[in-house]
UniProtKB/TrEMBL annotation:
A cellular-component GO term for this protein: cytoplasm
GO process terms (BP): methionine biosynthetic process
Family to which this protein belongs: Belongs to the LysR transcriptional regulatory family.
Main location (coarse class): cytoplasm
Name recorded for this polypeptide: HTH-type transcriptional regulator MetR
InterPro entries reported in the protein's UniProt record: LysR_HTH_N, LysR_subst-bd, MetR_PBP2, WH-like_DNA-bd_sf, WH_DNA-bd_sf
Entry keyword annotation includes Nucleotide-binding: no
Pfam families documented for this protein: HTH_1, LysR_substrate
GO molecular function, one term: DNA-binding transcription factor activity
PROSITE patterns noted in UniProt: HTH_LYSR
Keywords attached to this entry: Activator, Amino-acid biosynthesis, Cytoplasm, DNA-binding, Methionine biosynthesis, Repressor, Transcription, Transcription regulation
């Protein structure tokens, strides 16, 4: 029974549980679907049991699969802790990590990562800078901040964009809205609507740059809300339509407080990035913070997925 299990097996099973599908799990661990299927069959052959029920929706693990997942939770956490400690020994553990966030819905998932990070890197000074009128990317290039969370990369000298995850921008409206019965929303549907947005420039709003502007559509009126909860409440009360990330809207949709629709037949899927200066890419505590943030989001935020294509490759480059 020696060498029955390998670390890659545990990572694959964890990815399969978190994504719920072979396709998405393969992306998560940077394999083709065929290679991932082969790896799972090989492991099942080694242990002599199936790990999950094929074609089950949602995915259901067998007792053998659940036992290995329990092992994965313990082992992968220990490996991550050991890698972190080694990084601290090799690269030192003190530094500064000032953050700015262009994604105004990101604080909820950032806070658990920050709380855990503080305990693991106590000598790293953490702080936030920003506000709706603050322009963080030039501040990053000028070394006023060290990390920016953004969905709108801008080419700047010495600034690198590391993809965290992709999400769907969805449209929220009152449950009894005239568009609530639609399968999805077309740009022209918003021509007679009040659009509720954050008080930022249109060039920083996906609903304009990726949805309305390409169709040359202008909403009837524009209303701003600084708080996400306020935007959702305005939409729920029939005072307009707001565009927010799918992970934000899922809680309210599940409670039937709002109707949630995709923007177009295939939806709008931006990618959220962490922007850092080029010299910070190899800084141990920066790498660890972003690894923890990405891992937390992919595991906990409903509806998000690993970046596809070039974005995923860019993150792999960063990790290596």
């Amino acid at each position: 029974m020696s060498h029955l299990l390998e670390l890659r097996h545990l990572k694959t099973l964890a990815a399969l549980r978190e994504t719920g599908s072979l396709v998405d799990a393969a992306e998560r661990v940077c394999l083709t679907q065929s290679a991932l299927s082969h790896q799972i069959k090989e492991l099942e052959g080694r242990i002599g049991a199936s790990l999950f029920v094929r074609k089950s929706r949602p995915l259901r693990f067998t007792q053998a699969g659940k036992r290995l997942l329990s092992l994965a939770d313990r082992v992968l956490a220990l490996v991550a802790d050991a890698e972190r400690e080694l990084n601290q020994l090799v690269h030192g553990e003190a530094g500064r990590l000032f953050m700015a966030i262009e994604c105004h819905s990101c604080f909820n998932w950032l806070l658990p990562t920050i709380e855990r990070f503080r305990g693991q890197w106590p000598a790293v000074e953490l702080d936030f800078a920003g506000g709706f009128t603050f322009d963080p990317l030039p501040a990053l290039a000028a070394e006023e901040v060290d990390l920016v969370i953004t969905a709108d990369p801008v080419a700047l000298k010495s600034v690198v964009y590391l993809p965290l995850f992709s999400y769907e921008m969805q449209l929220a409206l009152a449950a009894d809205h005239r568009l609530a019965g639609r399968a999805f929303i077309e740009p022209q549907d918003l021509a007679e609507e009040t659009l509720i947005t954050y008080p930022v420039d249109r060039d920083r709003l996906d609903v304009f740059t990726r949805f309305l502007r390409p169709a040359a559509v202008e909403p009837r009126a524009l209303r701003t809300a600084e708080l996400t909860l306020m935007a959702v409440q305005l939409a729920a009360s029939g005072r307009g339509v707001c565009a927010l990330p799918n992970w934000v809207l899922e809680e309210y949709r599940a409670k039937a407080l709002i109707a949630v629709k995709s923007a177009g037949a295939t939806g709008v899927w931006p990618t959220l990035y962490a922007a850092v200066r080029e010299e910070s890419v190899t800084t141990a505590y920066v790498r660890d913070f972003l690894s923890q943030a990405r891992e937390h989001c992919l595991a906990q935020l409903p509806g998000v997925r690993a970046p596809r294509g070039g974005a995923a490759l860019a993150f792999d480059y960063w990790e290596n």
